[in-house]
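Hi Q.,

Before the meeting this afternoon, I wanted you to have the zinc ion prediction in hand. No need to reply - just skim if you have a minute. The sequence and ligand are here:
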Amino acid sequence: MKNKYLDVILDNDPILRAKNMEVELPLNKEDEELIMNMRKYVTDSIIEENQEKYGLKPAVGIAAPQVGVNKRMFVVRLEEVVDNDIIVKEYALVNPKIISHSEQMSFLKSGEGCLSVEDIHEGHVYRNARVTIQAYDAISKQDVTIRARGFLAIAMQHEYDHLEGILFYDRIDKDDPFKVLENAKEI
Ligand SMILES: [Zn+2]
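Predicted structure with the ligand bound:
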């Protein structure tokens, strides 16, 4: 039986390094279907049963080039616990633009991972601590301005990098992977 989920390509595939094109709006049927399937992958990927049954890897986000389509779209979904409530933040962004960012940087203590990267790449991936992103959001079906900080800001920049053909380990200092940046907050 064919896997009902999108196939994710790995970092040896030149598609991940190719130029990604702007998407025409309003979304045509094909693009709409693609981004909703990307959303489905991310949403379902955190359920253990799906990981075993369909070989999904738990994901916070996915970008169109990772499923073999060189278009400027990505999905980010994360759950935050606020006062014992689980808040789901979910975006399916088309033609995202980072319009401003903080000078302060941040990084994940545990390092970053990626659906398209199977090898281990240890080291600090420094990113802007806060970013403001404008895009069309295919979930709320409107133009949005997102002010992201913390883990969300990191996830957004990781996915945005995919649209620029950049992988997280490109940002790790080869000579000094755990180099300490003074202006950077650990998350
Ligand atoms: Zn990735």
